[in-house]
Amino acid sequence: MRESDPRIVLGLHRSRYERRILTSALDLGIDAIDTSFNYHGFSAHSALAKAANDLLPRFKVSTKVGFFQAAGQAEHSLDPVRLRKAAEKTIRDLGRVPDLVFLHNPERSLHNLSAGSRNALDMACAALASAVADGLCGAWGVSSWDPRPLPGLVEDSTPRPDVFMVRAGLLAGADVLDAAEALATRWDLGSDQLWGMSPFGGSTEDPLWSSLDARMFIRATGSGLSRVQAVFRTAYSLPRVGAVAVGTDDPCHLRDLIASLRYDTDDTSVNAYRRLLRERADRQPR
Question: How far is CA 24 from the centre of its chain?
């Protein structure tokens, strides 16, 4: 078993929740997993406990609350009471207190920059901060797929999260990257408190990754670094994050991603790419 590496979090969004990938992750030095209240048809926590109840004490477990079952479908809510109940149910289903609970995509319930939206965000954040104080989780954070509405809603009174997770990588647009960095500055979060997610935009099989050689963003690549590995490594710089949550059920893929961390990104190339993204965004009709 390798020494623990905190830079990779095994994401379980599309996982089959099989024991094999969890044991492989531990063998490779990955001891953090990320799931959500609504994953796996709202059964992710119980499925995880069933598959690997004896392994869970060896993992740092993060999860998310914000989506709920309603009339056979999922609905989003920032209701503090519902968030609290979801945190309590998470403990029952997992059989343990999660290390970290994220407020899941709060932007889904924040439709404008009104005082009502600001108050809703403040109360939701306060509910998770209270959950930490009451021992329902070890820490709390915000996970946002589209953080663009959030900088205009965060005020000095808004509780400060311990971790902020945001979409990262070459497919994250300039406005998403700018919003993520603005929030990190507003909350005074260091890069070790920022997590990236969806580094491949959904799949490593996307034809884009075979036509785009992301090794141009890697310093002194040497030999053997694949294009997919380069895409993953570059995600740590778009925006600059300390960890990336990535999903796979293939231990070989996980091993390849770990190997990519031996390399460093080339800041000059990454910054040039950021400028191109911003110039392209500026040309788009408003």
Answer: 21
